[in-house]
Design a protein that fits this description.
2 helices
Length: 96
């Protein structure tokens, strides 16, 4: 074999090795992209659920405000009953 053919064969081997490494890095980059898209979809889903929860909480707060304003005496009675219930519950829980 001549020197030129040895150099060319060596260059071809290095070229194929480099092509394999580039292919590996391309696959890794594609995997990272897929994971990033999946995470982005998960975050969008969580964001939608949090927006729905926020809307439901806002609606509940508005309804509670309406009930409190429309029946202040019943609201006071209910609040007192709830506080008494909590006092009894925690008293029993800590005693036993």
């Amino acid at each position: 074999m001549s020197r030129a053919s040895q150099l060319e064969q060596n260059n071809d081997e290095q070229f194929h090795a480099l092509a394999n490494k580039v292919s590996i890095f391309k696959n890794i980059a594609n995997d990272i992209n897929n994971y990033a898209q999946q995470d982005n979809n998960n975050l969008n889903s969580i964001n939608d659920q949090m927006n729905l929860l926020s809307d439901n909480l806002r609606n509940t707060a508005n309804k509670l405000t309406y009930v409190i304003r429309s029946n202040p005496k019943i609201t006071k009675l209910s609040a007192i009953a709830f506080i008494i219930f909590l006092l009894i519950y925690y008293s029993i829980k800590y005693l036993f």
